[in-house]
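Notes to self after the call with IL:
- keep both proteins in one doc
- input above output, always
- annotate only the second one for now

Protein 1:
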Amino acid sequence: MKRLLLFVVLACVSWSSLPTASSQTQEDTLKNSYLEKEKNISIAKDTLQEYNNFKKNIQLSTKNKDFESLGKAYIGLAKWREDHTVIDSSIVYLQKAISLYKKEEMTKQLADTYLLLVVNFSGTAEYDKGSEAVYKALALYEKMGDNQGVAKCYTKISDLLYYSDSYAEGAEYCKKAIAIQEKNGYEEDMALSYRRLAENQLFLGNLDESLQNMNTAINLYKKIGEDGPPLLACYNGRGNIYKYMERYEEAIADYNRCYEGAKKIGLTRYMIPPTANIGHVFILQGKYAQALPYNLRAIEIMKRIGNTKNLWENYMHVSNIYSQLGDYKNALEYHELYEQGHSEYLNTIIARKDSELQVKYETAQKDLEILDKEAKISQQRKTQILYIGIAGLLAIILFGMYFTLKNIRKKRKALSLLNVELDAKNKQNELLLKEIHHRVKNNLEMVKSLIALQSSKLEDGASKEAMLASQNRVQSMGIIHQKLYQGENLGSIEMKDYFINLGEGILDTFNAEEKVKIECAMDDLNLDVDTAVPIGLIVNELLTNALKYAFPEDKSGTIQISLSQSTSEILTLKVADNGVGKVRGFSTPGIWFWIPTHSIINTTAQRNHA
């Protein structure tokens, strides 16, 4: 117990020394130091007493076999440990409560505890486990007809979608939750849903709507008298909105509200986001030396308490800061940490998607055992709707990405006309553009993976072939965005290198690396992304067609690709193979023979040089 008291005291004292955005003289700091430490010791004593009370309740409830009180004591201790950043042991106590509720068949308590478990798994970035827990809770609430619980699950699902960059889908789940909560007057739950809706809308670019909904959440919390962590999280969220609206003073004011409120009640983990965000504000203003201590402190505390879900993002910021300050050794070190953390983050997203599909698959299997022939036909129709939905989602993502990138390029051209004083901001925009291309490529990889998962469950050959074609088309566009963020020139793509990479990917898909060789006999040619995308899709189709029909069985051969520019407005694309060809004058139903062909496309491009 003495060691626990010492830990809490040290944690409080450590955070009291964090630099703040508001100015405070050294004399004021020394003057308040003693009183601050006395206050921290008092908070530590109170929290230790609270901890001991939970332990006593567990012992007493176990002795009296009072299972309802025992479950509440487990959950109380878990929340205490969560608030004091001991997340791993918080999960242990929640799992104890879950085992108890399952054994005693206490369904409502079991569903509520699953939702608490989601929060902990989000804090440790284990989104796959969080997804599994929230769907278990949703199934229980639906079975009980508990609308309040169902709405809470929708809000939690939106939170998980937020951390996998699925902002539009997350916003829709929030709106579904709010509709239920407004109808039934669940004001406290509705405040959280408005906050989650605002957070998703922020990254959809709807800044005015996002600010309006975050203010609604804040007003609801104030109305019901909430002044703890939920309200503090709203202040941090509103600070993020102000930050992207470039209202930096208002952003820092809200971050300080969050930080000071968390410090007052001794909740260390709620001090991390505003600390990191103040650093980000300074980065956006080009004040890199001022930003560095904030982001380093955020990393230090995240690692110490095990709350790692945003750790990779702070590694990225610190790497950029060191780069701007000319410390390239540290910049490289933190960039490597960022790459590793970001890769792990993406793996958790893929695992979460797989977990969702597994849960849905197991549920469908149980239903199929009691369904008749008519129900099976209905299931097939649902599958067709799912395919249409995936195709529609892909189209929306691609159009959204296209117009987003187009707008960013226009802004970069406009910024280039400004004077030298705006150079720092131009560099920041270039970093953001690279990150967008990186995210576009990652999103396309995720879409490709989802298509692959879906196609693995298909038995019909034609459907599998169609899904494979879709994978290749997504891959062809993904390579373009990969070349953009890896290259030096963000405005154009070197087509010869692109064709080589595209060919290798398609050969790997058809497992034809040993028998077919793809040659790219052409000069270096750089094209903008608007021209490269359709050409890439055309070449993808021609290569796919050649590999399917020109080289039957074990026949080997060569495919040649070339692209040349005869004038400033005409591009000539040539794709040729030396496959089996088609025998003239001979026709057998169902059998095709291919002759060597030369597919030549002349494209007149009306280019806008404005």
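Protein 2 (the one to annotate):
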Amino acid sequence: MSSENFLDLPPLLSARGTVRLPGSKSISNRVLLLAALSEGATEVRDLLHSDDTGRMLEALHTLGVAVESLGDNALRQSSGQAYRVTGCGGDFPNKNAKLFLGNAGTAFRPLTAALALAGGHYELSGVPRMHERPIGDLGEALRQLGADIRYLGNEGFPPLEIFPAKLSGAMVQVRGDVSSQFLTGLLMALPMLGRTVKIEVVGELISKPYIEITLAMMARFGVKVRRGHGDAEHSGAGTAALPLLPQSGLTANVSEGQRQEWQSFIVPGGQRYRSPGTVYVEGDASSASYFLAAGAIGGGPVRVEGVGRDSVQGDVRFAEALEKMGARMTMGPNWMEVRAPGSGKLKAIDLDCNHIPDAAMTLAVAALFADGTTTLRNIASWRVKETDRIAAMATELRKLGATAEEGVDYLRITPPAAGYLQTATSSGIDTYDDHRMAMCFSLAAFGGAGVRINDPKCVAKTFPDYFERFAQVVKTVPVIAIDGPSASGKGTVAQLVARALSFHFLDSGALYRLLALAAQKRGVPPDAENRLAELAARMDARFEESGIWLDGAQVGDELRSEQCADMASKVAALPAVRAALLDRQRAFRRAPGLVADGRDMGSVVFPDAALKVFLSASAEARAERRYKQLMEKGMNANIASLLQEVRARDERDSRRSVAPLQQAPGAGLLDTTELTIEQAVQEVLARYRANASQ
């Protein structure tokens, strides 16, 4: 179920399939800016179609860079965009411009550096959250080179204004422990000066793999960078040599020589960016994490294509973290595939996540399905992302029943003791306008109760069709929805089908009768809609093998009384009551499956039901069945009167303003006039198995 403001993901049973990843956001925006700074025209293929790349494209256009869209628009949106960027050689044609960059850090930080050295007058702004994300360390580094940067609001934060300035200096210092995008921006912009400049990193550099991406892309456009002591050029070979940092943190795992490699960088003068002709953007490794985790939780195999062993992106090492949790991984040059652990259950881990800062968010939700307590360390950079991701993640994990402990730079997660996640469909998972929050928490739907994602459209920042792609590789907990007129046998058939498949069973009519009974006990009249809706939301009702329970007491004959049935019919027509019971009915959907009997089961409650059946029979046959039931109970009955009652009930039900009796779209008709109950059950089972095999 979805609306403009939320998306309800049903409970998920398994994951299996193949997905082609969209282009990497980090690579896409780096390539676009480098192509603009280059001499010559560059064809950029498989570019990510997203809000962030859209902001960069708009900015380049505003700056006077020639950007030409290539190919069919529909094709671009499904398999990556293609553009021809005619570079300006570092000299932007428009020397006076205002740029709005939304919440795109991969556009804002590098453009700030490039424009500060471009000799023009520029104003850069974004959404309110962008104005809360620090940029002062980058600004201070640029001022060391003579750049004239002024902040229009809070000092050290966007929005900001850049003025032409006299540039000088051969050495600059920049902090590395807040955001690697500061160093990325400097590295990409410094070749514009035409002279050798040394960068010294102050503090421990975080998110090193993203600097590897920057260096690899710069090398692709002809600019080499020396790092460490300056005795070797960066080759752009990627991150394969970097150590995985699993247990005790960065300091204990990195030698002094390795540390020095990341503390200084030399950009030799006399180099200019030159177009490589055509650049293909790798699939996004951070986006791969959601599908890989789905395979590890939901069985698999799930294969992602577009990124693999040869990737320049550090987030491919998310696969190593999943292996530590017990998942079974295989990998090729451009693909990765995962299966669940042989035991079927993930293991908790204690991991330094400096090397996978974005993909580590996925581990936080995967931890809900692991044995034990998972600790994610060295993630201080989460606090200055699209939202404060440590605080946001802890808050939303707690909604699902997990214990979440947050620190300045760590997050510790313990799954619910009950072994299944609490439902979050009423309040929903808040996403804070953060695309990765929305995508991460889609995995919570494997927890048994489904999940509501608030503001699902925020995924447009990097992966606009994420939920459609996700749906292609997951299998929902199946529902068989059975409806039909009075005395058609739907309740009996539904219960027997559920028993045959070992599925859960929901008698929606019994829920309304329970509400009627609870209202009678509390003296709530049948026309008090708001009071009844409140009661529906909080009444203690349970369905068990031994019977039906209300307020801790088993109910039987009183639930089937004429008085109770009459009131149930009245309260069921109240829209507020039906809305209040909606989430309660959906909560019955749990693995391995559900058979739901009721009027709107296949249309409103479970519109995605795997099988919808509309049982029917002639009025005469239904009257005769009712007659036999009453006689077996020793009750007097008249067949003619019963026939009249059946026809009157059909007429009344078909004219109801709420949930009228009708065959729902997609429901298959099953006429049971000439069938026994057993024959009807076998027909439903045959239809379900036929659907499941397709």
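Annotation: The mean pLDDT is 88. The domain at 6-21+282-476 is CATH 3.65.10.10 (UDP-n-acetylglucosamine1-carboxyvinyl-transferase; Chain).
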